[in-house]
């Protein structure tokens, strides 16, 4: 048997799971009595269970004398005959059944938690400490504590007001609960925790940073003002003013702009452009051609009297200090977010101490901390429980925090002459938002092996056992072109900031996709087809779903052109003889999934949907808590559970305003007046009885049938949950809310989906890795305006004027204008390149799920430079109804690729 390190790069559909199971069997069959010395690490409980079942199934077949390519491979690896393999398999099969606990297929989280338990004393944790997994409950408690502090903490109130005003300006949710929950995600997401690991926003530093930033801005402004006014004074001494220069000249702009500069209210729209010209050309001294000769002489005298020196000094000062000036202005605008996150972090640490609790997200950091200082052999003995060999699945999804814990175990296994096996596909690394990076698989793991004298064995699996040859050929061509154009695409998205860190990411991206071209494991059948369907992205209608009375497709999909296209695709598949269970629709975001599910339900209610009797299967099934009416009822029950809680009073009032269509601006203003919420609550009728009776009283009082008829479906589903609770539990409001939160909470998405054979499937692209479907409809980013530039990014900034000064993370708007000519320009350039790589990987995952039919549904971009996949793919594949790029034109001629364009004309 081989020892050392083997890394398998397995492209989509090439059998990653099969490779890992066979490797496990090679080790286990070599020493059947010691199979419990092998640890196989997966990333989900479902994957661990499937691998365990597959292993036992293969072993059972081998023990019964079943001989196939697997048995041939095992015999060759173990250097034994088939008869010996059969006897060993029989012995191992019975051993595993009797010692089932010894089959070590474990998730990375379960492994880290077991290590944490075994090292609790070394980490200073009490024997009775708890590991909290219900993040929803933690959020509720932190929000409650935050609102309680508002009455006494004016600084916190200022930060929260600024945060909500920013939400309002961005036309986001006016309800403070939703954006604050999203903001709190920084406390719990693995990516943020890795990012902030040594630089968590500090509540004690917030005011000091604000003062430092303002002092720095004032100092720079005063320096520029002094130099600009000194130049004007020299001109004035010679009887001159700025009228001697052309109005659009740099000297006029800088002297007039800087002489009156105030950092709080300056106009900076044109300053970046002027700074670039200043760097390239300096400050030209071009005079108007019409000025008198004596003024030209006076100007020459002014230059000799110090103007030249002062202008050069001003230029140097601007170029030197402008990046810090611009960066600090951006920091000052978002300092409230730094303070708010620091407050949440402080509250979380207090809560953990008070409850003797650690979050499940803390496990890798706590374990990594002690592993840094302990001898490798001791770690391996203490934590691995006799493990010799380590096999790791989906290794491209390993985060840095997880790797810091796995690294000592892998090093010790390799140093002890044992085996480490890792399988994954860097092209399918799609969890960067939680800290995962393919760099661990591509660089870090091979480096530790070479560091102890072990040469890594790198294998590639390029044969695709999943998809029809036509789909493989299309994806080969598409992704080869996308990677070749990646540098140009990224450059267009970052406004030309082609910096070294960005170039490094692009180089790694090209290396990752060097093996993108796959071969088909099937015979060259004609069963595969690909359709790219662009639709006209018409302006959305103001009408709501409940307003539709007609049953024709045009009325039902008014303002929803993507739904009309999905309808036509489903109709086409139904006519070809496919069933609903053959079809999966893949979208980019949870919101898109919910919108598609809603649209399909609407079509079904009107009797207009293809596969009319099919259920819809989604990990985010249409949930009652998505309806404003249900949100209002839940907020009311939370208020009843604790009427004195300010937080619950505000939430109840906010839900009422939203339910009645009050504008977001008006709601944002009213939320800060607690007396309005109190007065409104006092006018409500007293409600009594069981929870179901209370809800019905509110429905009658607020006339729900008239107020929100389109939400009755959700309301009655919510009532059904209440009835189910009241059948089996006490009828207390607090108990019901705890039950409801568990059903609707964040962890509910991890519940295994029901097996419904004939159901339409609607998933996000993140959820389908490892799955396959006969027919896949892919909605790439671009539907509903999803863009890669959305959101914010926290970036590390030096507060001092040199690299050795204090560094802190601050939030910045994620767009090129914010970062151009600033200290964060390089970091932004690299971040855009990394985001592009992850979006490309996500598209790759989505496009490689199909077995026979692949549809890409794309809005026709109104602007050719629009930063969406719709625009990118259009630019790569077709320019008009006649010109189609090779090799896609050849696919069209072969008849298995079809393009549908907005004019409804097909090529």
Question: Strands, helices and their partners?
Answer:
Layout: E1 4-10, H1 16-30, E2 38-42, H2 45-63, H3 69-78, H4 82-98, E3 104-107, H5 108-118, E4 130-132, H6 135-149, H7 154-169, H8 177-188, H9 190-195, H10 203-237, H11 250-259, H12 271-281, H13 293-333, H14 335-355, E5 357-359, H15 363-371, H16 376-384, E6 389-392, H17 400-415, E7 419-424, H18 439-451, E8 457-461, E9 463-464, H19 469-484, H20 486-493, H21 500-512, E10 519-520, E11 529-536, H22 553-556, H23 561-575, E12 583-587, H24 590-605, E13 615-617, H25 628-641, H26 646-659, H27 664-670, H28 674-682, H29 691-701, H30 704-707, H31 712-728, H32 733-744, E14 759-764, E15 773-778, E16 781-784, E17 792-798, E18 807-813, H33 816-819, H34 825-847, E19 850-860, H35 869-877, H36 888-894, E20 897-900
Parallel strand pairs: 1-7, 1-8, 2-3, 2-6, 4-5, 6-7, 9-10, 11-19, 11-20, 12-14, 12-15, 13-14, 15-19
Antiparallel strand pairs: 17-18
Helix pairs in contact: 1-2, 1-3, 2-4, 5-15, 6-14, 7-14, 8-14, 10-11, 10-13, 10-14, 15-17, 16-17, 17-18, 21-34, 25-26, 26-28
Keywords:
907 residues; seven-stranded parallel β-sheet; six-stranded parallel β-sheet; 20 strands
Notes on the structure:
This protein has 907 residues and is α/β, with parallel strands linked by helices. Helices cover 54% and strands 11% of the residues. The chain contains 36 helices and 20 strands. A 7-stranded parallel sheet has the order 13-14-12-15-19-11-20, sandwiched between helices. Helix 2 (45-63) crosses helix 4, helix 21 runs parallel beside helix 34 and helix 26 crosses helix 28.
